[in-house]
Automatic annotation (TrEMBL):
Organism field: Pelobates cultripes (Western spadefoot toad)
Superkingdom in the source lineage: Eukaryota
Record protein name field: Uncharacterized protein
PANTHER family: REVERSE TRANSCRIPTASE (PTHR21301), REVERSE TRANSCRIPTASE DOMAIN-CONTAINING PROTEIN (PTHR21301:SF10)
Length: 182
């Protein structure tokens, strides 16, 4: 087994280009860490840290969530086709009744057979650094709901802004000791 050392890396972002200012030993260490099959590298749940975990410990952290039968259910088959049919049954009447346009219909409907949403966890090292629990995240990228979620987000964004903007402005104007009248 090789000895691994922690390397602090500062990332400098210039436009779309990402530059790593690393010396040669740091580059080798980074390459070793990112290619190690027995390590998982994830951002921490809070604090903006990068966490290196033993793969077995990470998988166990994730499995703790999946064992919760109140939140998760083991499926015997892939329900993607059924969910896709349900999505079509919801948006087809919306198209027929001119609630959505043909372009919106095409956007909402996945172009290819979608992937199953993926669960991963962000280690809560701020609570326990040696055996952190994980914050479960379900990534819907490429899933059946990705495009409909984007559509609804765009549709609801102006409404949410109208609802939250007055309260936000009021909170910003009511500074203790400040004059709210201008």
């Amino acid at each position: 087994a090789t000895k691994r050392t922690g390397v602090m890396i500062k990332l400098h972002i210039y436009g779309k280009r990402l530059e790593l200012h690393l010396n040669e030993p740091e580059r080798r260490a980074l390459k070793e860490l990112t290619t190690a099959a027995d390590l998982i590298i994830k951002p921490s749940d809070k604090g903006g840290n990068v966490v290196l975990m033993d793969k077995e410990q990470y998988l166990e952290m994730c499995m703790e969530h999946l064992r919760d039968t109140q939140a998760y259910q083991k499926l015997t088959k892939d329900p993607s086709s059924q969910f896709l049919n349900e999505l079509k049954s919801i948006i087809t009447p919306a198209l027929d009744n001119r609630i959505i346009t043909q372009d919106e219909f095409k956007f909402i409907l996945p172009h290819l057979m979608p992937t199953i949403a993926t669960l991963y966890c962000l280690p809560k090292v701020h609570k326990n650094i040696n055996k952190p629990s994980g914050r479960p995240i379900v990534s819907g990228n490429g899933s059946i709901t990705e495009r409909s979620s984007k559509y609804l987000e765009k549709l609801l964004h102006p409404i949410v802004l109208r609802q939250s903007l007055p309260g936000l402005l009021e909170r910003q104007l009511n500074v203790p000791g400040g004059d709210t009248q201008g």
